[in-house]
TrEMBL record:
Gene that specifies this protein: gcvH
Keyword Ribosomal protein appears in the UniProt entry: no
UniProt key word Lipid biosynthesis: no
Required cofactor names: (R)-lipoate
Pfam families, A to Z: GCV_H
PTM sites of type N6-lipoyllysine: K63
GO biological process: glycine decarboxylation via glycine cleavage system; protein lipoylation
The name this protein goes by in its record: Glycine cleavage system H protein
Organism this protein belongs to: Apibacter mensalis
Family label: Belongs to the GcvH family.
Upper taxonomic lineage: Bacteria, Pseudomonadati, Bacteroidota, Flavobacteriia, Flavobacteriales
Keywords, alphabetical: Lipoyl
Function as written in the Swiss-Prot or TrEMBL entry: The glycine cleavage system catalyzes the degradation of glycine. The H protein shuttles the methylamine group of glycine from the P protein to the T protein.
Assembly: The glycine cleavage system is composed of four proteins: P, T, L and H.
């Protein structure tokens, strides 16, 4: 299982890559394997300010639909437009081209997030 060390992780299997006052967010390799083939990504909160654990969208897989939970407080700036035509990027490249949203951080408190080592303990 791929768990990049430069990212932070939530207990709800969301990764976050913080770059200054913005961050990219997606689901972990573990989560995409649990869901199976992603066929649709539904995000309708562009411009919205969301708090930790609020739902920012859903992923639809062949057999299930799963909510996506914010790992940190932020304003949603952008949706990965590539996912509209190719939602399977979430499966094939969850930490790269399969990112889901970009946010502007509203708060930089990260003590509730896991580093790669702690996340690995959670999923093993």
């Amino acid at each position: 299982m791929n768990i990049p060390s430069e990212l932070l992780y939530s207990s709800k299997h969301i990764w976050i890559k913080i770059e200054g006052v913005t961050a990219h967010i997606g689901i972990t390799d573990y989560a995409q394997k649990q869901l199976g083939d992603i066929i649709y990504v539904d995000i309708n909160c562009i411009g919205g300010k969301l708090k930790i654990d609020e739902v920012f969208g859903t992923l639809e897989a062949i057999k299930t639909v799963s909510d996506l939970f914010m790992p940190i407080n932020g304003k949603v700036l952008e949706l990965n437009q590539e996912l509209e035509n190719l939602p399977t990027l979430v499966n094939t490249d969850p930490y790269g081209k399969g990112w889901i949203i970009k946010i502007e951080l509203q708060d930089t408190t990260i003590d509730h997030l896991f580093n790669a080592e702690k996340y690995k303990e959670l999923v093993n």
